[in-house]
Amino acid sequence: MTKEIKVALIDKAPNRTDYVRHFNNEFEFDHFHLCSNPEIKKVLKRDVDIEIDLDAYDWVILVGSEALQQFTPERSITEHSGRLIDDKFLPVINPAMLAFRPEARRTWEDSLKNILGYVSGELIPVDISTESFYGIDNKEEAIEWINKALNAPTSYISCDTETTGLYPRDGHILGLSLAYCRDHAVYILTDVVDEEVEVLLQKLFTKKITVFHNAKFDLAMLEYHFNFEFPRIEDTMLMHYMLNENPGTHGLKQLALKHTKYGNYEQDLHNYIADYCKRNGVLKSQFTWESIPFDVMQVYAAMDAAVTFELYELMLEALNKNPKLVKVYKDILVPGMLFLKDCQDNGVPFDRRRLEEAQNLMEKEIQEAIDKLYSFKEVKMFEQAQGKEFNPNSTVQLRSLLFDAIGLQPTGKLTGTGANSTDAEVLGQLAEQHPVPNLILDIRQKSKIKNTYLDKIIPQLDRDSRLRTNFNIHSTTSGRLSSSGKLNMQQIPRDNPIVKGCIKAKEGNQIVAMDLTTAEVYVAAALSGDKNLSEVFKSGGNFHSSIAKLVFRLPCEVDEVAELYTFERQAAKAVTFGIMYGAGPNKISQQVTKDSGSNFSVQDAQRVISQYFDQFSRLKHWLEEQKEFIEANAYLYSTFGRKRRLENVRSADKGIASHEVRSGINFLVQSVSSDMNLLAAIDMNNYIKENGLKSRIFALVHDSILAECPHHEIDAYSKKLTEFVQMDRGVYINGAPVGCDYDVGEDYSFGKYTKLYG
């Protein structure tokens, strides 16, 4: 007799969602709610009043993140939607969101398929054993396995590393995971990799295509510690990025959950780590992989290679269906990844002595600001009334000081909870009423510089006084690079030169920074074919002054605009950048008012926008064409072939839909200008290596390429880089290549540090 399958469904609270319809009436289920109150917005522990006997059910469907977090240790509903947890729980995104977030439909459909599969018995959890996935801890077995891999019919192998650190100089490699076929992989301890094994491994890497997941990391480790060479590589992380550019979806574990039968194969390993930390009183942040015994590690480490192998076959098939994406992957992403690996290895040059000097300077300035703050009787009286020291970083205390103790008039800007805001913008406005807000702002900014940058950089410097951090090619939907790790180079403060001043070339060298000028507007002019806008670039005068003269029909020469018509120039600048990002009259009104300090009404903004498009009608037409295409197709391709999927343009929420259109147009100009810069940097880096130059590119920051160059190479480096930047790559205005501005100096502040601090 077939056992009756019992299913429970648990969601947040009573609602109108028709789950029977969404699950196609394929099975019956008992419906439960975490909270019986239908008005609840966010379910807290005190709100949970569910009564359910979990043992009475074969399967429990958990709808939404709150249900997931109540019954499992997992946090992300998107990652685990449709994936089995603890042999019972089947999490799934809330289908009610599909009307507002159409991009989630694919996740819902895949999840539904899996849930129906488990309930019907068609899907069975995979048993991962040491028979197929195991470790090798002796030389003889390692040699035997490598020889089998060398003779295997597949032209590719997958490879992964287990390490004790995130950077080559911070740790060592514990072992290599390898696979040459599906459903089989090994984990080879590096303890058995002697010269003979190393030669064999190099033979394997030379003969086969080596597939990594996040190749930049593994290549850096293997090249640094073993000097391995990899003539042909593939990267499943970058492949997936081409197939789905949304951030946060490219990790190996997420993709294993979504695309393979292995699911959350590391769950037992993470349980071991959690138990180890609890037993030994170790914080999870301090736990190292060295603490995991070989017999525990072997299966899960080997699985990394097995999953990578399987993903490669899946991703390759999907990618090959779209030649445009293949071209971007091969021509931009893989070369870009290899360049960024070199860039990271070059390291950001810091002056340790100046860093220590900057620490002391910041500490002194912070103390001076604090002393000045306490010169106000309102602050002293506030502390006395509170009975504790005033903390400038406490929004509760600050709100009470400013609005209650001092009696300032709130700006009207509120936080998400409805309280009066005390953010940087508000403090700047409140400074017009009293000096204290400006002092608070000063203390906050300088404390952040000291705590976030100066204090953290020094202990992370390598012996050569360089800091090696991460640059990512796969983290943004636009294709722009990002930075993370030891230092986010994209977020170094612009308004204070102290951190930039500590990035200093070694003796005999200079810092050389190349900036693209108005690159995104240049791209828009080239793509739209707007003759008037192109003529502005061809004229060679100040760009924003030229725009202002045309739009406002100013009776002066271009070089006189900045002095005689400052407001008009500011307005033209705001409109130029605003329309590139879909800003309307309201936004442009606010921006010009803020930048100029003079009122610029919505009507004024509307009038200027109209005048602007009178001059640049083809640009307007092009923008409208892109909007129509996005609304009709829910995707776009960049000139270089990147695809931006924009499914939320079909959202029932007009705000979400219009934001999606703006994102698409942003993508068209941002991705192209970013790729132009990246391709130039790749070409320059290859030229440096091929010609034996000593110059080293160490960072790409926004539209800048930063390098450290010997004095005698600066001219040659700058000339060659300009050639690469201005090369016609299909986005080009005849007679007016994109502009390149150069700054050269001993440090990245280019003299501002010395001017300010001596």
Kindly describe this structure.
The protein has 758 residues and is of the alpha/beta class. The chain contains 29 helices and 20 strands. The longest helix is centred in the last third of the chain and has 38 residues, at 654-691. The N and C termini lie far apart (88 Å).
Task: Please give a handful of descriptors for the protein shown.
758 residues, alpha/beta, Uracil-DNA Glycosylase, subunit E, Taq DNA Polymerase, Chain T, domain 4, six-stranded mixed sheet, four-stranded parallel sheet, 29 helices, 20 strands
Tell me the helix content. Answer: 40-55%
Oligomer: single chain
Net shape:
globular
Provide the number of structural domains.
5
Q: Can you count the beta strands?
A: 20
Number of helices: 29
At the fourth level of CATH, the homologous superfamily of the largest domain is Ribonuclease H-like superfamily/Ribonuclease H
Unreliable residue stretches: none
* Content of β-strand: 5-15%
Looking at the overall shape, the CATH architecture of the largest domain is 2-Layer Sandwich
* Overall average pLDDT: 92
Q: Record the strand order, biggest sheet.
A: 5-8-7-6-9-10
- CATH C-level name of the largest domain: Alpha Beta
Report how far the terminal alpha carbons are from each other.
88 Å
Radius of gyration: 29 Å
Q: Main β-sheet: number of strands, strand sense, barrel status?
A: 6 strands, mixed
Judged by helices, strands and strand pairing, the structural class is alpha/beta
Q: Do you know the CATH topology of the largest domain?
A: Nucleotidyltransferase, domain 5
